[in-house]
Design goal:
The chain is α+β, with helices and mostly antiparallel strands. It has one domain: tt1808, chain A (Alpha-Beta Complex). Helix content is 27%, strand content 28%. The chain contains five helices and ten strands, in the order ααββαβββββαβββα. The longest helix has 19 residues. The N and C termini lie far apart (57 Å).
């Protein structure tokens, strides 16, 4: 019996349950799967409002921070990257993530990126809010992510958190359409109205 259990273990992820890995690798249509602290979570794919905000953030940050056009450059910013963090590991997919280029200088050879992001952005929706806030926010802290944004397109709000010694520090909370400077991308003004405009 022990030999059968050992044979069922996955060569890539031996610490994770094979049945959870099967769903993670091949989720049902319209579903996103993550495994955090060994637990499988499934959520519906993002809705258009959610996707629109993600594209607007990427469009705002990529030219100045990824390409250095009108900003300092020096970042890699990816939409929905597959993260493989820690030894267990945690397998998660933030809406957006960014790495300082010196920490991710080359294209990772595998689909899952094991370098902890310097910044992550989660876009809240009714179907994912509880998971993002109660499960993923502590997970990002545990792995040492430097900055976290929580964007709520329905409330037109942005929360910016900075990692400090004993947890997350709320560095900015704003609502509405006024331009803001939001860490770690405070070298430019972010047009919040663009995040909510269709």
């Amino acid at each position: 019996m022990a030999a059968d259990a050992a044979l069922a273990l996955d060569a890539e992820y031996p610490n994770l349950a094979p049945d959870a890995l099967a769903v993670y690798r091949d989720p049902p249509p319209g579903v996103v799967a993550e495994i955090i602290a060994g637990t499988l979570y499934t959520m519906p794919r993002p809705r258009p409002l959610h996707q629109n905000s993600a594209i607007a953030i990427s469009d705002s940050l990529s030219p100045p921070f990824r390409r250095g056009r009108g900003g300092p450059g020096g970042w890699i910013i990816l939409p929905e990257p597959e993260l493989r963090l820690g030894d267990l590991p945690d397998l998660a997919q933030p809406d957006l993530a960014g790495w300082r280029r010196d920490r991710l200088p080359d294209v990772p050879p595998e689909a899952a990126i094991s370098v902890v992001p310097d910044w992550v952005c989660e876009i809240l929706s009714p179907s994912t809010r509880k998971h993002d806030v109660q499960v993923k926010v502590p997970m990002y802290l545990r792995h040492g992510v430097g900055h976290l944004w929580l964007v709520d397109p329905e409330a037109h709000s942005l929360q910016v958190f900075r990692r400090v010694t004993d947890g997350w520090l709320l560095a900015l909370f704003t609502e509405g359409d006024e331009p803001v400077r939001a860490e770690p991308f405070d070298a430019i003004e972010l047009d919040l109205g663009a995040l909510w405009s269709w």
